[in-house]
Amino acid sequence: MLHPVKRPTGKRLAAAGGTAAAAALALTSGFLGLGAGPATAGGNHPATTTTPIKHVVVIFQENVSFDHYFATYPKAANTPGETLQGTATPAPAFTAAGNTPKGINTLANAGLLAPNNPNSVQPSRLSPMQAVTCDQDHNYGAEQKAYNGGLMDRFV
Q1: Which of 8, 110, 121, 142 is disulfide-compatible with 136, CB 3.0–4.6 A?
Q2: Which pTM value belongs to this model?
């Protein structure tokens, strides 16, 4: 059995018309010069800072935590014999700056490295060879290819 189509009531028509008018006004106000004025510089800020920090760089990567990068920092050092990827050239040695803070909240400072860490693998710095982190896209086809018929040997 077919149901008759309900026709909108006067209140619904008025509400829909009001919504459409508000949307049209919001979309055209920028074109008509009715929007906010240009951005202005805020306040008088000193050229110097109270700490030696002038810039903060935040590193984000999917499924990678702060501890992956900094759990053993500032004790990070190149593995003996480490070379630049694909060459026999020795990798440059990493040396933390003398004024690098040492009391940051890391696994090492929290006493959570071996033997207190229940995980079988301790955090460590990636070698240049391991740091090649090409990533497959997250579409269905790429995931199926990485699955490789159950071998699961094509994941990065």
Answers
A1: 142
A2: 0.26
What is the domain count for the chain? Answer: 2
120 and 130 in one domain? no
For residue 97, give both structure tokens. Answer: 């700056």
Residue 60 forms part of a structural domain: yes
| Bridge partners (DSSP) listed for residue 83 | 90
> What are the CA-CA distances from residue 109 to residues 57, 71, 122, 145 (Å)?
22, 9, 14, 41
Q: Is residue 7 classed as helix, strand or coil in its secondary structure?
A: coil
| Residue 14 maps to a domain | no
Q: Indicate the pLDDT class of residue 34, thresholds 50, 70 and 90.
A: low
- Here the tokens at position 117 are 């860490």
Per DSSP, the three-state class of 20 is helix
Grouping H, G, I as helix, E, B as strand and the rest as coil, residue 83 is strand
* Structural tokens at position 25: 């006004």
Q: What is the pLDDT of residue 139?
A: 72
Asked, for residue 152, whether it belongs to a domain, the answer is: yes
Residue 81: predicted pLDDT: 77
Q: Tell me the pLDDT of the chain averaged across its residues.
A: 67
